[in-house]
Amino acid sequence: MSATMSSVQTETVTTETHQIRPQDKPLQHALGVARLYRARSTLQTTLGIISNYIVFMTCIAVSQSPAVSSYLSPLAARMLYVLSALLIASRMRALENLIHEASHNNLFPVAKLHQSLQFLYAFPVFRVVDDYRRSHSLHHKHLGDRQRDPDIVRLYDLGLDKLPEQPVWYLIGLPMTGFLTYEYLTTTFWDFWESSSSRLSKTLYWMTVALGVAYTKSYQGFVYYYLIPFLVILPVTRYWAEISEHLGLDLRADLGSSRTNIGFIHRWYMNPHNDGYHAVHHLCSQVPFYLLPEAHRILMKDSEAYAKATVISYGFFETFKQMVTVSRRQSEMGAEKCALAAKEHKIWGSDGVSFGGIRLIALVGKQMVPGKMGIGFTRYDLGLDDVMKFKIFNLC
């Protein structure tokens, strides 16, 4: 897919090549409702961008203010810095969420502005909209595909198919090791500089930042208020946010393949700019971030199929619990169903494939393919002969 092809074009092509079946009427009704909320607003986007920079400047100003520090004990001053660093990291995550929106051309009515203004939200966190769009379009097109969905590929590379067996390690231990920072530096950060996309503009941006830091001699401030939030806190925040989107859900389903995380910590820290309304987003990716809550509210009221299928979490630890318990249930179901499939088709011995310590056999027609458990059901799982008929395309 061309890097310059907009996500609108991508999803239009998908819709045109997909034949809607009679039993898809509930899906089409939900989709019709979501499509009512596709209007772009430059004002809303501008306010969203500005709000992040206001938080950045406020945290630095308050944390560095002599008037404030004079009233604080050394311990309280350190706690104030930690709070400031957490808030700054959350706004960095917010910028990443805006990149996600830009990849779908959801920020501005004029498509070319998403590229022209990426210095406001993409370059500060070492991203390029075109490169992100190229990868993210594959996620929507091949949701749950172990080989072609880059987001799912990463979860497997991190070992999250073993989440039911080692939940504490994968939810708490791994993020605290610092490995996620190393992973980021050797993948996304490296790709930012290696990619030819927007080479001149991104280089000029970071040269300007470097010269500004050098001219003002604000090296310490840059370390405390940019590098530490960006390289220490943000990777953990990003990890928790990303694994909570699909982990443990039925990735074959038209509805219910994405979790809606709308608790306080989700909305204000992990998933800013309404990124937690992921079920609406995967139903219709053209709903901009400022309309996602309203679209979700109306869908819960007017679409029985959406309301029934959507998995909602209102708390940080509730999300963790959902991921672990559902993944364990899937593993148990997978072992039982694959055993039945093996017996029915008289397949024994070494034909199975092991994931997460469970021997699995999955069939598409009569062709053997690897089964995938722990992260979520995919269209290749559980010996379903007609599983390729499941639609996991974004139809909006």
Description:
By secondary structure, this protein is mostly helical. It has helices at 7-16, 25-34, 42-64, 66-69, 74-103, 113-116, 129-141, 150-157, 167-176, 179-194, 199-216, 219-246, 264-270, 278-283, 292-302, 304-309, 316-344; strands at 249-250, 259-261, 311-313, 353-355, 358-360, 362-364, 367-369, 376-377. Helix 5 (74-103) packs across helix 7 (129-141) and helix 5 (74-103) packs across helix 12. Mean pLDDT is 82; it is low at 1-18, 345-374 and 376-396.
Oligomer kind: single chain
Which stretches are low in confidence, meaning pLDDT under 50 for 5 or more residues running?
A: 1-18, 345-374, 376-396
For the residues shown, what is the average pLDDT?
82
Strand content: 5-15%
- Please state the overall shape, judged from the principal axes of the Cα atoms: globular
H/E element sequence: HHHHHHHHHHHHEEHHHHEHEEEEE
- Classification by helices and strands: mainly alpha
Sheet bearing the most strands, described? Answer: 2 strands, parallel
Q: Kindly, what is the distance between the CA atoms of the first and last residues, rounded to a whole number of angstroms? A: 18 Å
Strand neighbour order, sheet with most strands = 1-8
Total beta strand runs? 8
Radius of gyration: 22 Å
Describe the secondary-structure layout.
Elements: H1 7-16, H2 25-34, H3 42-64, H4 66-69, H5 74-103, H6 113-116, H7 129-141, H8 150-157, H9 167-176, H10 179-194, H11 199-216, H12 219-246, E1 249-250, E2 259-261, H13 264-270, H14 278-283, H15 292-302, H16 304-309, E3 311-313, H17 316-344, E4 353-355, E5 358-360, E6 362-364, E7 367-369, E8 376-377
Parallel strand pairs: 1-8, 2-3
Antiparallel strand pairs: 4-5, 6-7
Helix pairs in contact: 3-5, 5-7, 5-12
